[in-house]
Design a protein that fits this description.
2 copies of one chain form a homodimer. Chain A is α/β, with parallel strands linked by helices and about 475 residues long. Chain A has helices at about 1-5, 20-30, 55-60, 75-80, 145-155, 170-180, 200-210, 260-265, 310-325, 355-360, 415-425, 425-430, 445-460, and strands at about 10-15, 35-40, 80-85, 85-95, 100-105, 110-115, 115-120, 125, 140, 160-165, 185-190, 215-220, 225-230, 235-240, 245, 250, 255, 290, 300, 305, 340-345, 345-355, 365-375, 385-395, 400-405. Chain A has a 5-stranded parallel sheet. Chain A has a 5-stranded parallel sheet with strand order 9-16-10-11-12. A 5-stranded antiparallel sheet of chain A has the order 21-22-25-24-23, with helices on both faces. Chains A and B meet through helix 9, strand 21, strand 22 and helix 11 of A and helix 9, strand 21, strand 22 and helix 11 of B.
Chain lengths: ~475, ~475
């Protein structure tokens, strides 16, 4: 009895969302409570929820908040995970293997020692340091609490003019959400085109489609100030050129790794301020600390460089890998190719691999092609146009990236390119891929094959 | 002038559909009429049409026949292709490099010599050798003429009972077409479940879904006779067990390579009676004869064996490769992984790679898993259930095949597996694929990844 007690290890998890709780759950699957004690700290009220789902909850497609919660605190506790909500970790002490946490209700602080530590502190939204940012009516959409606060504001606000700051995937998804709620939506965007994760020529297509949906795009706009009315509430978003009237403002500017604690503890951070790990998701140089989710940097398998990508699917994979390793198994996360897919109403936007500027930044010469095709056989009902851009390396022809803008059936086609990138295929090899064909699903040459043919021809011509 | 004339080569193409006319068009792109004369023989009335589209034309989704024609005879002729319609090649004489053709209108026969020959004679439908097969009201759906004849019958027939013989992809697509036209549809199937291109456990799901759509499935049924009425027209389909009343019968039993000419000419045929070619689509042992489309066998890259797969997307690729090689370029068709996708109303069915029995036949031991997931995040509207079966090789974990049955968004997910098969990935490698994720497009773990995780675990557990 005493022997088994002394052998029991304690795993401490910082952060109760996708990466942290996936890790905890997977570790628990592999090791029972007699072998492994699991303590998880979460400063918010919720666990294991889909932040990616918030725009659809705000927009009304998802009827209530609880549907976004994959696993409740009670469910975690039922699996012998000692989950401490509203408890914020304020210090990591790797030398003495302990963390200090504060109960946000009582203010009480205490140290908890660990044998193994998982850092899953997530990301924090970028908030420009300009006047008025904290005015009532200005909202982030990072957490369920943020989503609820925005919904409360929408319920209270009579005006119907919404301004979304930022035109990345959160920005465009929030634009859709607000359109669906009957708002007049303006998107204020720092870049020359929306979706800076695409090349500008593809971003232009998104721009045009968004305007077609009734969304006003203001590009090349730097937000200088949030203007407020006599009641202190937001009344407009000021840019260098103009004031855009706003009854509500949503910030969708993007996020940075939340690594304040890790930095203070002297853990290794990369060029984007994310934690650096090895392929087992272990923090570099620290035998008993793992990290995953939005607080880490990942290896871009195409460019060979470190990137920060905040995405639930990566966080879940990291958690799975960490939990397996913590639980005594073996798993690795080799890296990403940078796949992302999003939609604005019926417009689907997808990308994987490198953009032109990414390729240039790492010294790769490339051929770029753009083709137009359709989602189904041209004669089949509801065949919709689709534009595919493909980058292949000069001379070798190795696939470097694909971007797709279209309607139904466009987005997930990017998976073809994601797998081909992972496998290191050339455009020429891709031309003979045996992809699913039937008139309701694809033209006889899938749009990705059409792009591959053109890219391969350009690579040959360029020798 | 004379010099250039003597240098001009003649390409003869037998068959005016996808493979033949793609080859002719691509050859013409690379070589002008001064260098290359192109003569194409087609025994029917049409060129370059989508036979795969016939079920959708019959079902009414495609409003008229001409929409299925990708390129008309006039368009081919405008590109200096000497197209001879209603002209059937009756002999190939490889020794003297010539073909004999008969004008089906006048009956006149003549020889045409060639420097290069392309055989694209397609496939012929399997018609069981039983009494009544030629009765009025019994229809194949192989050609546009077949489709028109069926539509004429449907317009004339008052009864609303349709029987489809065969439950492969043509059979299920025709079942949908007839349902859409308001028929009471019974599918009579020789196998134990519909879609024998799937394993029976997945075919069972198709069976249940088809019955849910109001289609009556009669499995394990051998058609013994077509029964006719006093007027000589079809009145029922007799099987070993029962007579199924029918006002119209559609044959969707499958096809065989149409290689009568090739066989008579002594050209090499494979185990399925399809022409054998090398990777440049050149007929084995014949320097100046190429073949492609439904009349050839292809290499299955997963099993390493020859297969016959009649599919428009392969025919087009073959044509492109042949035309490039005939035109003095270089292209190859490495083989297939056996991807196919089809639908019955809103049910999507997809497969790639090997079934259990294919793997056994070539001596491969495997682990098979089946998982259930959804097309989108579970909380997102219209998330629909999807079943994925995955086969991975015992010990190595190499992906062997994937089968998917689901609703919207299920079918084209098979492309992920098609690319992974081509690349020779293992299930374990697939678990970390960076696939597109956002709630409207996928759960946080794509269904294919869920299957890969389970398959990888089973491979590990099986050591």
């Amino acid at each position: 009895m005493n022997m088994s007690r002394t052998r029991r290890e304690r795993l401490v998890v910082i952060g109760g969302d996708a990466a942290g709780m996936s890790a905890a759950s997977q570790a628990r699957r592999l090791k029972g409570p007699d072998e492994l004690e699991i303590v998880a700290f979460e400063r918010g009220h919720f666990t294991s929820y889909s932040a990616c789902g918030i725009p659809y909850w705000v927009g009304g497609a998802v009827p209530d908040r609880d549907r976004l919660i994959a696993r409740t605190p009670e469910e975690h506790r039922a699996r012998d995970i000692d989950l401490r909500l509203r408890t914020e970790v304020t210090d990591i002490d790797p030398d003495r293997q302990r963390v200090r946490a504060r109960d946000l209700e009582s203010g009480a602080e205490s140290w908890t020692s660990y044998d193994k530590l998982v850092i899953a502190t997530g990301a924090r939204p970028i908030r420009p340091d300009i006047p008025g940012m904290d005015a009532p009516g200005v909202h982030g959409v990072q957490t369920l609490d943020d989503g609820q606060a925005l919904l409360d504001t929408l319920a209270r606000t009579r005006g119907r003019r919404a301004v979304v700051v930022g035109a990345g995937y959160i920005g465009v998804e929030m634009a859709e959400a607000l359109i669906n709620r009957g708002y007049e939506v303006t998107v204020v965007n720092r870049g020359s085109e929306p979706m800076s994760t695409l090349d500008p020529d593809m971003g232009r297509l998104v721009h045009e489609a968004m305007e077609g949906l009734g969304i006003t795009m203001v590009n090349d706009a730097e937000v200088t100030k949030i203007l407020t009315g006599d009641d202190g509430r937001v009344r407009a978003v000021a840019t260098q050129d103009r004031d855009v009237p706003a009854d509500v403002v949503v910030l969708g500017i993007g996020v940075r790794p939340e690594t304040t604690l890790a930095k203070a503890a002297g853990l290794p951070l990369g060029p984007h301020d994310g934690l650096l790990t090895d392929r087992s998701m272990r923090v570099r140089g620290h035998e008993n600390i793992w990290a995953g989710g939005d607080c880490v940097e990942v290896l871009d398998l195409v460019s060979g460089q470190q990137r920060h990508i905040a995405l639930g699917t990566h966080a879940n994979k990291h958690g799975q890998v960490i939990g397996t390793n913590v639980g005594g198994g073996y798993a690795t996360f080799p890296g990403v190719v940078g796949t992302a897919v999003s939609k604005v109403c019926d417009l689907e936007i997808a990308r994987t691999g490198l953009r032109e500027k990414d390729a240039r930044r790492v010294g790769l010469r490339f051929e770029a092609v753009i083709i137009e095709s359709t989602s189904r056989a041209g004669y089949y009902p509801d065949a919709s146009p689709m534009t595919v851009k493909m980058l292949a390396e000069h001379r070798t022809g190795r696939l470097l990236g694909v971007q797709i803008v279209g309607r139904e059936g466009a987005g997930k086609r990017v998976d073809i390119a994601a797998v081909a990138l992972t496998a290191g295929m050339t455009a020429e090899q891709m031309t003979t891929l045996d992809l699913g064909y039937a008139p309701p699903f694809s033209p006889v040459w899938d749009p990705v094959l059409v792009a591959a043919r053109k890219a391969a021809a350009k690579v040959r011509g360029s020798f």
